[in-house]
């Protein structure tokens, strides 16, 4: 995205932009490959929070995250809805992808 903005601002040429784009794409592929190899080498499965997030679903997680940030629900009540202890609500909602842009 940065390289494209530089292209649009006429700071880099089309040839330079293509080179940067190819380089960034290759670095991204290398990063994915390293993560994949690291995951293969690791023993065990996904973490507790990954499994719990998958079972609960993104709609409920987003609702609880918004409700907590707005103060319309307490952590105790959110923990009962999510089926975790109150101290596990924050770690569970830590990596919840945000939807919408209101």
Count of discrete structural domains: 2
The 3D shape can be described as elongated
Radius of gyration: 20 Å
Q: How far apart, in Å, are the first and last alpha carbons? A: 24 Å
Helix coverage percent of residues?
A: 55-70%
* SSE topology string: HHHHHH
Distinct helical segment count: 6
- Rounded average pLDDT: 88
Give the strand content.
under 5%
User: Which secondary-structure class do the elements indicate?
Assistant: mainly alpha
Summarize the main sheet.
none
Low-pLDDT ranges: none
Features:
102 residues; mainly alpha; 6 helices; 69% helix; 0% strand
Short précis:
This protein is mainly α and 102 residues long. Helix content is 69%, strand content 0%. Helix 1 runs antiparallel to helix 2.
Verbal overview:
With 102 residues, the protein is mainly alpha-helical. It has two domains: 2-41; 48-93. 69% of the residues lie in helices and 0% in strands. The protein has helices spanning 2-8, 14-41, 48-56, 58-70, 75-82, 89-93. It is elongated and about 55 Å long. 5% of the residues are buried.
Outline the fold blueprint.
Blueprint: H1 2-8, H2 14-41, H3 48-56, H4 58-70, H5 75-82, H6 89-93
Helix pairs in contact: 1-2
């Amino acid at each position: 995205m940065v390289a494209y903005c530089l292209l649009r601002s006429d700071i880099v040429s089309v040839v330079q932009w293509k080179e940067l784009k190819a380089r960034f794409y290759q670095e991204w592929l290398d990063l994915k490959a390293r993560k994949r190899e690291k995951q293969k080498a690791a023993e065990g499965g996904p973490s507790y929070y990954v499994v719990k997030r998958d079972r609960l679903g993104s709609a409920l997680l987003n609702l609880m995250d918004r409700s907590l940030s707005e103060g319309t629900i307490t952590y105790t009540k959110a923990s009962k809805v999510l089926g975790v202890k109150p101290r596990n609500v924050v770690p569970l909602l830590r990596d919840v992808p945000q939807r919408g842009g209101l």
